[in-house]
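Researcher: Structure prediction, please.
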Amino acid sequence: MSLLKDGIRSLWPRSARESVRWEQWVLEERKNELRRQRAMHAALLLRQEWETEELKRRLLAAQTRIYYLKQGEGRDWLPLRPDNSAAAAAELPPSETVTQREAPLPPKEAPVNAKPRAKMGELLIRDRIISVEQLEEAMAKQEETGGRLGDILIDLGYVSAEQLLPYISNQPNKGRLGDVLLQLGYLTKDQLEKALSFQRKSGGMLGDVLLSLQFLEPEQLYRAIANQNNIGRIGNEISFDPDMKLPEPIAREYGAVIIHQYENRLLVAVNEPLSDEIISVLEHRLEMPIEQVLATKNEMELFWSEVYGDEMLEESTSKLAIEQPHNSASTTFTKPQILSLALTVALFVGGLFWNFFATIVLVNVLVQIFYFFMTLFKFMIIMYGSRSGAQYRFTDEQIKSIDERDLPPYTILVPMYKESGVIPQLIRNLEKLDYPKAKLDVRLLIETDDIEAQELIQKMKLPSYYTVLVVPDSLPKTKPKACNFGLIRARGNIPSSMMRKTGRTLIS
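Model: Predicted structure follows.
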């Protein structure tokens, strides 16, 4: 009986419409679920492709090591244990900061690495100045907060500055970055030669070239740079004090963020070693000694968002309105516009009362004239843009004649919202760009509530020149605001934006 009632009720038009709407909603949900699954599978496939390439590189490196071992050159390939004591030896800062720039390789008959030297912690234990337990405690503290091992030993009271001084002064020159990476076992000779060849062709910093070729991880590179410059790396636990931070313009100028405060100094995270002059300026500003620790580019982005997120958000939403109010749309209607609109409405209403038919005809004529001139204007723009000299065109010979070493760093801003389905294809298209990858700065701008896109990108092992920025939730929720947010910390000299709109990719 109930089945009969349901059947009769379904014959009514209202029930039929509701049933159709329900089926359409179910179909749309299934389509959305299918799109999400396709995007997830595409991301996993892309990650597997990159991991396959990485495994191939590692296999090649292993085969190269085996070859040199057979040739009796195994000493150059034995990796040292990359613990924190080597990366954070407490030595006085050099007078001239060593950068990532690399000179050409030495002749092949010259040894790349010297005999592995003992670390400072091992020397202190050998001379019975500290015990193994004390060294392990200091290294655990270093792992937690970061910094140099020697400074931590002094803080814990295990050594004095006078006891540490002979071990600091006797530390040999660390050499070039490539030599340090070879000695730590992070790189092979073949990989270094390829990176230097790429650097001689396209320019840029050796570290950026190595990361773009995915020969090593960013943490390995920055540990080696810290080891080379006798400074520490950041720790696992970061404690930000809102009352102890640099003014945002100064922090941006010097690329420094305070991440920890000791009793006698401040720990400052930097992306590249600071010079003695800059350190003096910061210490004078903070009225306290500072110790610099290296952080990767993505780590610095996280620190920057955590400490200066409010300032960045304010700049991305209000800077244009403050500096160029005439170009800003923060004010929807100005007073003259409101008065003009009110006068137009009053004239239209008055005309309707005076002569209804004539007023409607007049308004219709004016609207048609307006559309005619708009169409004519668009036609003129199309004709003007289709002129032979309106576009830049280059021949293959002109492109080949470009010296890649002169190409500047290039930033690509990619704002997106609820567009997870296109992310894998977008990454593939970006990878096809004919531009030195070491000079690219691709910034993926994701909104805070776009959890699906965040989870998808986390599963993709993106190269180091990709930076994922989560834009804080605020109004207006627009892609221009997201681009403003991403542009604040952009590293390129030439910014570009890619926006998906109505199914097309717009590049401006």
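Model: The radius of gyration is 31 Å.
Researcher: Thanks, that helps.
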